[in-house]
Write the structure tokens for this entry.
Amino acid sequence: MTDQSQKPLILIIDDEEVLRDGCRQVLERCGYSVLTAEQGIEGIKLAHEHEPALALVDLKMPNVSGMEIVEILSHDIPDIILIMITGYASIVSAVEAMQKGAHDYLPKPFNPDQLRVLVKRGLDHRTLRIEARKLKEEKDQMEKNFITFVSHEMRSPLVVIRQYIEALNAIARNSFDKEVREIIERCRKRIQSLEEMVEHWLDISRIDNGTLAQQKVSLRLSSIIARGVEEITPICRKRGISLATNIPKKLPDIIGDEESLVRVFTNIIGNATKYTPEGGKIIIIVKNDEYYTTTSISDTGIGIPRDKLPFIFEPFFRCSGQDEKTRGSGLGLTFCKKIMEAHNGGIEVSSREGEGTTFVLTFPAPINTARKATGVSS
Amino acid sequence: MKIKKKILLIDDDKDFLFATKLILEKGGYEIFMAEDGKTGVEMWKSISPDLAIIDMMMETWGEGFSVLSKIRATDTGKDTPLFMLSAVDLQGPYNAFEPPPEFPKVNKVLQKPIKAGELLQLVAQELGGK
């Protein structure tokens, strides 16, 4: 292996003895280690054994041509810099060599200064390339580890605090005053919402790095909506809000990740319940045409001010006037939007203050199904 | 006096061990704690508990699985109830742990944090009351 702290190793493959020796002298005087080979096969063998940092290769040699050597070495030797020595410095042969992986070329005749400059430039290029690759690898690894790290390091303390609160209540709840109990309960709730925030934030990071919503299978939209509705129904009942659905019997399947889509619906329907006063209504209507399946979720709630509408999908955006009870992680709608986008779908909102809000979720119809459907009907 | 049933807790988070210990002691159990898998298995052999609760993710992910397998392989561990604690962390957000079919029996998989009442109830179910 070539080590950066050691002298860089240079291999010269040329059938002209005078040229080999000349180059060797110049390069050794510059502080490089030099190996030489008279012809291709020997040169390739030496390169495999010693993995030089740079090789000077004569383009025109008997048996194995310089062009072939370039191809082999650029493939086999990691980070090698290849410089062609060419007697007929035509652009054509130079370009071909560069296409095959050569870094540069040196037209004959050349003087020692030209050789020194070219070799130094080649080695500098190599150092930069190696550094850039290492940095990129480090960055990729960091990004990957980050989610894992956050997931564990940030959640563990929160989990432990909640466990302590559980323990506190278990061992001493009955001896606490009402006030103390209330304080503990408030702490518990705040910790829980912090935990949820971490959770949502992690979900969004997972979408961004492509590790969420990857399992895309054929799904029935009606059963996804049913799961969302099922989850929210108890809350509606408790708050005296009616929840109705209007879904066509025949709907094309959608392609997606079931769990994350259920969460999108739970989120949107759940939001509707938060901002709809008692006695209000939530209606879910699904429609479809050849190209899209759209689901609108409308409520008769307080609505969203017109000037706030464009921002509601932004992370941590909150409409003012939200009290503690309705306050979520500030990431719910961001999550929904990202999930919908990951499904090539969309989410839109319209609202009138004091009248209600409607969210519209759009899924594209699967292309094959749509074609089949038109094929059958025509 | 009635002999207290023994429960072994294996988790690398000291605070989690302590909090869980407090809850279980309230239920009238005698609690032993191990902060790593190796100690956990050794303690299992020396004290023969009536139940063990093992964290799935300790120093390395899956450490809990190997600890559970080792305990199941002991004479006293064949039929003893073993609970596993799952932190959803590395498995993606939705995939709660499900033991593979050939995996030794896990009596219950619990999510951290565990509600005190729920924990005591589940333990009581397995140990047939205090």
User: Anything to note?
Assistant: The interface with chain B takes residues 148, 151-152, 155-156, 159-160, 162-164, 166-167, 169-171, 199, 202-203, 206, 211-212, 259-260 of chain A (CB under 8 Å). The radius of gyration of chain A is 34 Å. Residues 369-378 of chain A have pLDDT under 50 and may be disordered.
